[in-house]
């Protein structure tokens, strides 16, 4: 795609496009810095760790052996954002308005820059999703077009660098029909690894009956569904000076989980593998309270024949920006490590924040390996052969 394709851009926009990867296509050397092509055993051997692979396979790393940290982990990052140039042309101001983080990283995002960050922090593969706010700005036609453009961009990244990327496809919810069409195209033609949603749309949370046909179809496909927090229409700017990302993201994730739980979406569509972000927001703290609420209301309890706790414990939770004692402690009280996944939230947050936090949290090597990589290979089996 050349700059001549972008007639009508202002000079500033063209400068931005030149910086943002439109002019510079991914080259092979951009993809291969990380040794994902060699076997894990070869890599451990080359790193002077011969024998560790066998120990790992038996799950028996002993204290005198070095833990798998940093570049040796070969992480799979399930929470990794892209900001394609066509998306930024449409949504740049909204993207920046949502984030109180370093806008330089957002404005200068490129696929090559993403790989550089991945290489620094041992991320072998990133499953990408669109940065907020997503494709819905109130019009179905525009949302469908933008979703298609962004999904084709993401698929191109996957093809340019085999093994380094996967993607959760954007769909134009709350446009139900458009979402069904785009999910079919993304999963069947573009070979997306799953579908990326946000926690609420125009003050509707995903358990709303209007979203049920989409979840029914995703259940039929046994899809992986990644639900990222949104800025909820109800509650933005409730407190002066406190951006939504500080607490509302976590509350809206909690609302999304609650909505899917009490409306029976989790129990009716058990083949969807849901991933929620940031250690589940505040849900791990509120899980017992929520389960008690369900028990008190027969019409809700009837929708959950296996109980609220069962439904909450089968979900997957990424640990992006949450590797602190309060968040991890609450999550680990709710779910076993088999339900926890590595996520970085790059480029909003440097990948090292979560990577270093996880590496130094005091987990066993087996748990660290499971959260950083192995649990994700069960969700994305195509990545398993790249061990
Ligand atoms: Zn994020």
What's this model, at a glance?
With 387 residues, the chain is α/β, with parallel strands linked by helices.
Number of domains: 1
In helices, the fraction of residues equals 40-55%
List the strand order in the largest sheet: 1-2-3-4-5-6-7-8
**CATH domain class:** Alpha Beta
Order of helices and strands: HHHHEHHHEHEHEHEHHEHHHEHEHH
Bound molecules: zinc ion
Structure overview:
- The chain is of the alpha/beta class and 387 residues long.
- It has one domain (72-381): Alpha-Beta Barrel (TIM Barrel).
- It contains 18 helices and 8 strands.
- The protein has an 8-stranded parallel beta sheet with strand order 1-2-3-4-5-6-7-8.
- Helix 8 packs parallel to helix 9 (176-189) and helix 9 (176-189) packs parallel to helix 10 (212-220).
- The structure holds zinc ion.
- Zinc ion binds at residues 79, 81, 228, 345, 348.
């Amino acid at each position: 795609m050349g700059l001549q394709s972008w007639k009508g851009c202002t000079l500033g926009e063209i400068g931005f496009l030149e910086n943002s990867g439109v002019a510079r296509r991914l080259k092979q050397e951009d993809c291969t810095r990380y040794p994902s092509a060699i076997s894990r055993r070869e890599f451990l051997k080359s790193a002077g760790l011969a024998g560790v692979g066998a120990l790992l396979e038996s799950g028996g790393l002993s204290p005198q052996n070095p833990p798998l940290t940093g570049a040796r982990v070969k992480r799979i990052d399930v929470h990794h954002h892209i900001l394609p140039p066509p998306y930024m042309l449409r949504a740049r101001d909204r993207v920046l308005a949502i984030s109180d983080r370093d806008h330089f990283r957002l404005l200068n995002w490129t696929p090559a820059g993403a790989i550089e960050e991945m290489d620094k922090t041992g991320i072998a593969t990133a499953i990408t999703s669109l940065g907020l706010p997503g494709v819905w700005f109130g019009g179905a036609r525009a949302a469908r077009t933008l979703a298609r453009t962004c999904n084709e961009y993401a698929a191109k990244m996957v093809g340019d660098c085999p093994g380094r990327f996967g993607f959760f496809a954007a769909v134009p919810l709350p446009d139900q029909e458009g979402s069904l069409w785009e999910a079919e195209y993304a999963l069947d033609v573009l070979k997306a690894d799953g579908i990326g949603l946000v926690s609420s749309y125009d003050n509707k949370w995903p358990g709303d009956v209007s979203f049920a046909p989409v979840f029914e179809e995703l259940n039929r496909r046994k899809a992986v569904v990644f639900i990222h927090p949104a800025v909820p229409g109800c509650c933005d700017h409730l407190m002066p000076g406190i951006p939504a990302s500080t607490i509302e993201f976590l509350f809206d994730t909690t609302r999304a989980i609650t909505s899917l739980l009490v409306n029976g979406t989790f129990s009716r569509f058990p083949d969807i593998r849901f991933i929620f972000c940031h250690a589940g927001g505040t849900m791990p703290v509120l899980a017992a309270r929520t389960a008690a609420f369900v028990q008190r209301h027969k019409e809700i309890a009837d929708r959950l024949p296996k109980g609220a706790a069962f439904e909450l414990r089968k979900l997957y939770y990424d640990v992006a920006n949450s590797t602190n004692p309060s968040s991890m402690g609450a999550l680990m009280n709710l779910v076993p490590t088999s339900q926890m996944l590595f996520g970085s939230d790059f480029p909003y947050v440097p990948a090292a924040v979560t990577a270093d936090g996880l590496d130094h949290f005091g987990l066993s090597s087996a748990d660290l390996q499971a959260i950083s990589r192995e649990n994700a290979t069960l969700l994305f089996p195509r990545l398993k052969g790249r061990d």
